[in-house]
Amino acid sequence: NPPAQFAPQFAQIVKPVAPIAKDSAVFYGFGWFVTRIEGREVLFHSGSWQGFRVHMIRHPQQQISVVMLANSDIPERAALIGAVLGAVLPSMPAPPGW
Predict the structure, then answer these.
(1) Based on the number of CB atoms within 10 Å of its own CB, is 18 exposed (0-12), middle (13-18) or buried (19 or more)?
(2) Nearest CA to 96 among 24, 29, 31, 30?
(3) Among candidates 85, 31, 19, which has minimal Cα distance to 57?
(4) CA angle 59, 51, 33 (to 5 degrees)
């Protein structure tokens, strides 16, 4: 969780604002995708640029984050992050597919 002085700004960043598609359970906040998996809040985002990829997933209630940095196009990135989360905490819900 962010330091207390940044808590109000962080709350705005992860506040669900609009669904990413009609009838979607995934929302976009001001900088993060926000959803619930098995009743747990999940925050995630990804990006890429000319052969580089980054993906981050955060489970705030469990205080666990996984960041994947790659210098290639990895087609199964959600599965890779899910495997890392499963190794750290087997009860962790799978990440949403990107």
Answers:
(1) exposed
(2) 24
(3) 85
(4) 25
Return the SS3 of 75.
Answer: coil
- The two three-digit tokens of residue 10, written as one number: 């962080």
Lowest mean pLDDT among 11-25, 59-73, 84-98: 84-98
What are 4's two structure tokens? Answer: 């207390």
Average of per-residue pLDDT values in the chain: 78
Rounded Cα–Cα distance for residues 41 and 54 (Å): 21
9-42 pLDDT, tens digit each: 777 777 777 777 787 777 777 778 888 887 888 8
Per-residue tokens: 11: 């709350």
